[in-house]
Amino acid sequence: MSDTPGRPASNLPPLSLHIPEPRYRPGDTPDFGDIVVPEVGETPRPSEDSKPDAMRNLCYGLVRVLDFDGVATGPWDPKLTPERLRTMLRYMMLTRAFDDRMFRAQRQGKTSFYMKCTGEEATSIASTMAIDRADMCFPSYRQQGILIARDYPLIQMMNQIYSNRGDHLLGRQLPIMYSAPEHGFFSVSGNLATQYPQAVGWAMASASKGDSRIATVWCGEGSSAEGDFHSALTFATVYNAPVIFNVVNNQWAISSFSGFAGGERTTFAARAVGYGIAGLRIDGNDPLAVYAATLWAADRARTNNGPTLIEHFTYRSEGHSTSDDPSAYRPADEATAWPFGDPIARLKQHLIALGEWDEERHEAQRTELDDLVKTTQKQSEKLGILGHGMHQPFETMFQDVFEEMPWHLKEQSAQMLAEQEAKFGPNWKPE
Amino acid sequence: MMPESSSADTKTMNMIEAINSAMDVMLERDPNTVVMGEDVGFFGGVFRATAGLQKKHGKTRVFDTPINECGIIGVAVGMGAYGLRPVPEIQFADYIYPGLDQLVSEAARLRYRSANDYICPMTVRTPFGGGIFGGQTHSQSPESIMTHICGVKTVIPSNPYDAKGLLIAAIEDNDPVVFLEPKRIYNGPFSGYYDRPVEPWSKHDASAVPEGYYRIDLGKAATVREGEALTILAYGTMVHVTRTIVEEMGIDAEIIDLRTLLPLDIDAIEASVKKTGRCLVIHEATRTSGFGAELAALVQERCFYHLEAPVERVTGFDTPYPHSLEWAYFPGPVRIATALTKILKD
Questions:
Q1: Residues 6+ apart with CB under 8 A from A363
Q2: When comparing pLDDT for B177 and A2, which is higher?
């Protein structure tokens, strides 16, 4: 019947290849009305030592604490003090102010690259606040909130972004690829999900030494497709490693929607099921849900009850980076149509509902933080900006490849210094 | 030629035993040393390199891993960041590729990208090379892939004494080291004649291995045989094959065992080639972009006016490693003898 090679005569329809397609493209009117949003308080909170197979439903549900009127209820409510809530709000607002300023700095040609975390602030800040200061964080590239929640000096972040004289990474890394060991913040790679098995290794080391510290690690839903993600979950379950896996499902990996990481078929939290570890799917725009879930996972890890995978269901409100134009592949108003609101607005509303905050204080804090960022930026720019002069001694290029410089790097360094002298004369100094 | 070795605490060891002893010594000396890999724990490794270590040092120091090289190397990077000194085994060098991103982009660059905030004091041990009828997935020699990575040291021992001293130095090194073990000579040096009986290590000087701690610094070559007619640069299995052929042909060759490919002992190479005026490079790995290409380039850059003949290379062919035709592939006596005849005539 058929002339197609390899296809025997049959009344079956031909095979067809499925290429995922997001629901809305530019020009469409996004409507997320069919996303299932369980009621606040509906999701049970199992004890921290529950067996993963007894809590699988949590991989397919959505842990929520704050309703859309700013009221916190249910078993997951972490019942934070107003002081703690205000600190959380402040960190989130500071992160947003920082992002806006640094994004603009890139547009002004002061650096090569920047990435905002707008709309996703809770996923790093509330998460970091729920673990101990001594716990180790293995970030991806959009977790500037960790550093801010651990009071890392803003100027050091800016110096890194500008690759200037104050950059302790000596201008070697792309902007935002920070490293801050004193703040429990691992060096950001830039290659995706490589930090996943590393966090497991760190957690295994901590466990093998009888330490009390745990590791936390972040990746996006897009990079959960990397082999490293699955390597990490395999090792974590095999060794019952004290680690928290955060998958920030912000729906978009540059222009590829979550369907290209398998999101059409199941949740990302459900990856935990196959590995036999605990999984939680949470409202990532609800800072209290993020805090509560992280605290649950941290207590679980610290008591030798093993790893937890947390899917933070959120939305990337801005482009992937300064190099991206999301209007080319998704509706411009998709972020506002997203049904989970904005994490800062929701926490603010909650504090106001508690009678612990008001519009006036909020505006005053916004102005104060904008000024703080602006002042810090001026100080940082005194140490140089990218592309306007070379800020590091040339020979630093060859340092730290190895602990001790081998002969071939010494030779190459000498060659480069000769090139420098030929070009700039013998008296050149870093600018 | 072997360094001080016949003290009371010296034992006759083959290469596996010497490698085992190096890890045993380091597990004993440094509580941060951990050994991990596929089948390395209870069973002691498919080549027995870790035999007895788990029993002696405990399951959290010496343990089995999932069959996942990305995980093995990635986890080791994290352990190093914590402060451990991991010694992961990749069961065959042919299996290292799934872990290569963790090696190239992470382990090798961690010190640099973090400006010393974090380091990766990891030693990846892995058996490599052919001559054991391992077919295309158990015979490869990927050393030039390793030397092409900025931030990784590449070490290849050629005898039990060196293997132990170099492995201890590698484990103590604060940078990542790929320690390639020539598996054809685990149990005895190889003459190159596959149809002759294998000579055990016990008949070789270098099998006298101190039982305790000693180290051979990385980056130092060894002169296996002094000579005037030409310089032969080799490492691993090929050191022994080369020596056999040279002695059979009665050629007064100087054979240099590189031992560390990166950082390379350029002074030893330069001094020898300037003395002999001829240089032959021998390796088992494929030819194109092999480490021999780097050596040939360095020799002509540094010794051109001392050379009396073009630098020659004897290598494996640019094909996957064959199974049944293994000995037609292997750079054995005929290929080496042909090259020697040619370079001495030029």
A1: none
A2: B177
- The string over B288-307, giving b where at least 16 C-beta atoms fall within 10 Å of a residue's C-beta and e elsewhere, is eebbbebbbebbeeebeeeb
- Give per-residue pLDDT as tens, A52-104: 999 999 999 999 999 999 999 999 999 999 999 999 999 999 999 999 999 99
Chain A's closest residue to B115, CA to CA, is A169
Amino acid type, B327:
W
Q: Which of B138, B204, B240, B283 is catalytic?
A: B138
| Listed residue (A124, A35, A38, A54) closest to A279, CA to CA | A54
Which pair of structure tokens corresponds to residue A130? 């729920």
With CB atoms and an 8 Å threshold, state whether A202 touches B68: no
Chain B contacts of A181, Cβ < 8 Å? 114, 117-118
Residue A343 and residue A125 in contact, taking contact as beta carbons nearer than 8 Å: no
Question: CB A200 to CB B102 under 8 A?
Answer: no
**CA dist., res. B164 & res. B173, Å (int):** 14
B148 is known as an active-site residue: no
* C-beta separation of B262 from B147 below 8 A: yes
Global ipTM: 0.96
pTM for the whole structure: 0.97
Query: H/E element holding B285?
Result: strand B279-286
Of B66, B101, B174, the CB nearest to A235: B66
Phi-psi region of A262 (alpha: psi -120 to 50; beta: other; left: phi over 0): left
Instruction: Give the model confidence (pLDDT) of A203-230 as tens digits.
Output: 999 999 999 999 999 999 999 999 999 9
CA-closest candidate to residue B329, choices B183, B133, B96: B133
Contacts of A172 in chain B (CB under 8 A): 112-113, 115
Which residue, among B315, B313, B226, has the nearest Cα to B268 in the 3D structure?
B226
Interface contact B265, partner A, CB < 8 A = no
CB-CB under 8 Å, A179 with B114: yes
Residue type, A400: D
Rounded CA gap, A314 and A124, in Å? 12
